[in-house]
């Protein structure tokens, strides 16, 4: 892919892959990645210790004006929660739900992205009824 959009998609995919690897190392079981229903999407759905975790992954390049975690605003949280409700209804899940964020700042290491910082924010926000 060429251009800014292609570069953004590549960074997003790499960020989600790094986040998935991190979660597995931390003992999470990954149920779905990029789960969609209609216009709703969940980046990563994982389980650990009897809870279901809906993990939003945000990636940015080093030097970006805004830190990735700050891009999960109220509007985005509501979209994630709506998708989580749909997911739980579809799969008849009654476990406790948690909403986590993984923020990844990618270095200038080119396409291999070996240079990155990952911040895991458990319970980043709570369900709005």
What keyword list fits this structure?
129 residues; Trna Endonuclease, Chain: A, domain 1; five-stranded mixed beta sheet; alpha+beta; globular; single chain
Short description:
The protein is an alpha+beta fold. The chain has one domain: Trna Endonuclease, Chain: A, domain 1. Helices cover 31% and strands 39% of the residues.
Can you offer a commentary on this structure?
With 129 residues, this protein is an alpha+beta fold. It has a single domain, classed as Trna Endonuclease, Chain: A, domain 1 (3-Layer(aba) Sandwich). 31% of the residues lie in helices and 39% in strands. It has two helices and five strands, in the order αβββαββ. The protein has a five-stranded mixed β-sheet. The longest helix has 23 residues. The model has no long low-confidence stretch (mean pLDDT 88).
């Amino acid at each position: 892919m060429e251009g800014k959009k292609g570069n953004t998609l590549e960074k997003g995919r790499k960020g989600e892959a790094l986040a998935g690897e991190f979660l597995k190392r931390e003992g999470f079981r990954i149920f779905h990645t990029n789960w969609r229903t209609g216009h709703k999407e969940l980046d990563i759905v994982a389980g650990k210790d009897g809870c279901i975790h809906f993990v939003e992954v945000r990636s940015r390049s080093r030097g970006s004006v805004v830190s990735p975690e700050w891009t999960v605003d109220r509007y985005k949280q509501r979209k994630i929660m709506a998708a989580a409700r749909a997911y739980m209804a579809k799969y008849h899940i009654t476990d406790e739900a948690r909403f986590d964020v993984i923020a990844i700042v990618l270095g200038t290491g080119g396409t291999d992205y070996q240079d990155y910082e990952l911040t895991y924010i458990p319970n980043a926000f709570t369900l709005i009824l």
